[in-house]
Amino acid sequence: MSFCLTELHLWSLKSTLHIADRDIGVYQYYDKKDPPVSTTEYGNLEEKQRLAESRDYPWTLKNRRPEKLRDSLKELELLFGSGVLVSLSLSGPQLEKVVIDRSLVGKLISDTISDALLTDSFIILSFLAQNKLCFIQFTKKMDSLDANKRLEKLSALDYKVLSSVRTEGNPLDVHFGTSQPYQVCTVECSISVDQEPMADSCVYECVRNKLHCMSVTRIPLRAKAISCCRNPTEDKLIVGCEDSSVILYEAHRGVTLLAQAELLPSLISCHPSGAILLVGSNQGELQIFDIALSPINIQLLAEDRLPSETLQFNKFFDVSSSLVQMQWIAPPVVAQKPERGEIYDLLFLRFNRGPVGVLLFKLGVLTGGQLGLVDLIFQYIHCDEVNEAISALSSMNWDTLGQQCFVCMSAIVNHLLRQRLTPEREAQLEASLGTFYAPTRPLLDATVLEYRDQDIHYLALDMGELALAEVARRRACDIDVTSVSSGIVTPNLTASYRHAACESHFSSSAVCGPQCLDSHEDSHFGSA
């Protein structure tokens, strides 16, 4: 069974953490004095220290000037009052530098900050006690937060509200669209006519300084929504409900998926690749789903292979701490290779009355550290989890991810064709090929024309090999009416047999495309 292997790195020097010496997948920092007795219960602390240092994980933090990292971390765990800005620099999952800037202390209109937006040139703050926004403009562009960079202004500049609109439901999420920044996307909690809870996905557009609602998509729920997020391409909306259900709405297929989480989904975060979802609870639990809401087990690095449905963080804290923030950390630009995508393997975690840290995903060298849809489906195939692979493929959009869809579908079909044909395999072949031949919504003509050219029948016609084209067509028709496994005549036999027939004209390891079926005018697959 496939699962995610992780390491938990807590950036803390506190002795209230309960991390045993056998927890080789959990790390914290220690003072130079002897560590707490609770960490040496098995007598393996020295071995764990050698293991950490062999991986360039610092056991004790250096306190050299000017960074004074150990003192800065101690101060960090006592701070976060009014107007304190903190910048954390990382080297992998480890802290490299902590910069604390107090230039805003005592200069804000309120003591309690509820939210902040930090850019290179300005920062905007909102407050719990007052219905106001504070705009702070920096004197020069800031590549990183630095205590030496001072402020130019701290005042209510001449900013005006261009437009406002009253939403029909209670807004759960509001943000600008990533693909169309002039649009405002919201998720609103509403009630249907039958008094059933709903989630409204709304799109607003500012025209002539007036906000207009352009579209509303109503998603039925089983309970009130408490959290939500969108995937990077914004064609999927994930909603967490107070009955622990997770709802996923796919805009391009117009379908709604449902899964029951093992925890209360107070936080939801989508991986930047769009392949997996992380669902967290305030009680310090974490669960992983793929983009088709199939659960994925998770495990911290350990001596034994014991993956579980959820990851429990609270067992490492002597003082109960709730999980209040999850955010994927952007990788450093210098570490990226142009031929590979960005590697997102660090999840930032922040606990209330607790430490901050990261969850490191050990993604391996075979995928180059990637966690994309193709990598996920290939892992499913490797573990013979075909149904999960097909579900993930079904959630992909052929019109926008055509090449990835074709690679994944070919891999699934080739994996199934190498095995004994059973009714279950037959249904799986039909479902995987059906993502192209019987989609929920018709594909674009350009997509169909691009990928049907992989068909041996059509390819032979294009090359002038008329005899080969006719043999492929005739052989596929023969298999369409006779089962190769049982010899029983089946008029509605799955189209996968026709694909296998095309393979017989080449070597046994030949890879055919989905278009092997397009040559059959009497195909029953398209209406399945």
Automatic annotation (TrEMBL):
<keyword id="KW-0677">Repeat</keyword>
<dbReference type="GO" id="GO:0044782">
    <property type="term" value="P:cilium organization"/>
</dbReference>
<dbReference type="InterPro" id="IPR024511">
    <property type="entry name" value="Frtz"/>
</dbReference>
<dbReference type="GO" id="GO:0005886">
    <property type="term" value="C:plasma membrane"/>
</dbReference>
<protein>
    <submittedName>
        <fullName>Wdpcp protein</fullName>
    </submittedName>
</protein>
<keyword id="KW-0963">Cytoplasm</keyword>
<keyword id="KW-0970">Cilium biogenesis/degradation</keyword>
<comment type="similarity">
    <text>Belongs to the WD repeat fritz family.</text>
</comment>
<dbReference type="GO" id="GO:0045184">
    <property type="term" value="P:establishment of protein localization"/>
</dbReference>
<keyword id="KW-0969">Cilium</keyword>
<dbReference type="Pfam" id="PF11768">
    <property type="entry name" value="Frtz"/>
</dbReference>
<dbReference type="InterPro" id="IPR015943">
    <property type="entry name" value="WD40/YVTN_repeat-like_dom_sf"/>
</dbReference>
<keyword id="KW-0472">Membrane</keyword>
<dbReference type="GO" id="GO:0097541">
    <property type="term" value="C:axonemal basal plate"/>
</dbReference>
<dbReference type="GO" id="GO:0007399">
    <property type="term" value="P:nervous system development"/>
</dbReference>
<keyword id="KW-0853">WD repeat</keyword>
<dbReference type="InterPro" id="IPR036322">
    <property type="entry name" value="WD40_repeat_dom_sf"/>
</dbReference>
<keyword id="KW-0206">Cytoskeleton</keyword>
<keyword id="KW-0966">Cell projection</keyword>
<keyword id="KW-1003">Cell membrane</keyword>
